């Protein structure tokens, strides 16, 4: 029996999937093959790609899975909707990579040393708000496209810097492009950033369950719970970080106004064994506190 693993047909996605395939083959003791899943957005020039392209990619992978083209699909968990599908299961969340964002700037510059007016590529409302919060005199520029195309815009002088996920740089062997990586306490990132999830048809969980990493599942589930609960209140850009420290699950969330001029932070912790649903309990505490502080006014 060969396990067919569906992957988006891009350099980063295929690199991520290859690492999963090698581990899955060792654990399952069987052959594993990659099935590239192409969408209409793959191969488009960045300016032609749809703004909601991550949703397009997730949908395409899920269609390939439900139609039997593959047995497993690999997602960047930060792209996956928080609402569960009754016919599908996120059967494994593998050990997380670097959750931080990195700055890739010309001439080895850092966020602090970029000149006023420098053009900095950002790929999300969260990164735009954070950039405005830290350095309001810089010019955020929305960027689309794959990692190499974003870095190329710095190399050719179109941008002075670009902000990208540290894990993506590492997985594509471009870690040397980073001139600075931001502390999660100062620059929290998207829920579940840096984590990969393996999705299967409901009932097929045993295919990949050996790759599930308990600590990563716990922390990313907590982050995604905060995101899901806050989205019922407002659409403010949200950075959220969860970590396990000596058995204590600590979650911190920071919501921003779209222009970065205001921000609200809430942090709570508990021992997972003391709660029936630690992710949901912490999310409720955090969002209730943010609501009481006026988060709905941010966006």
From TrEMBL:
> Organism's domain of life?
Bacteria
Q: Which residues form the Porphobilinogen deaminase N-terminal domain?
A: 3-207
Pfam short name (any one) = Porphobil_deam
Q: Could you tell me one molecular function GO term of this UniProt entry?
A: hydroxymethylbilane synthase activity
Q: What is the lineage of its organism?
A: Bacteria, Bacillati, Actinomycetota, Actinomycetes, Micrococcales
Q: What is this protein called?
A: Hydroxymethylbilane synthase
Q: Which GO terms describe its cellular component?
A: cytoplasm
Q: Which NCBIfam families does the record cross-reference, listed alphabetically?
A: hemC (TIGR00212)
Which family would the database say this protein is a member of? Belongs to the HMBS family.
EC numbers for this chain: 2.5.1.61
Q: Which transformation does this protein catalyse, written as a reaction? A: 4 porphobilinogen + H2O = hydroxymethylbilane + 4 NH4(+)
State the protein's purpose.
Tetrapolymerization of the monopyrrole PBG into the hydroxymethylbilane pre-uroporphyrinogen in several discrete steps.
Q: Which residues form the signal peptide?
A: none
Please name the source species: Ruicaihuangia caeni
Q: Which UniProt keywords apply?
A: Porphyrin biosynthesis, Transferase
GO biological process annotations for this chain's record?
A: heme biosynthetic process
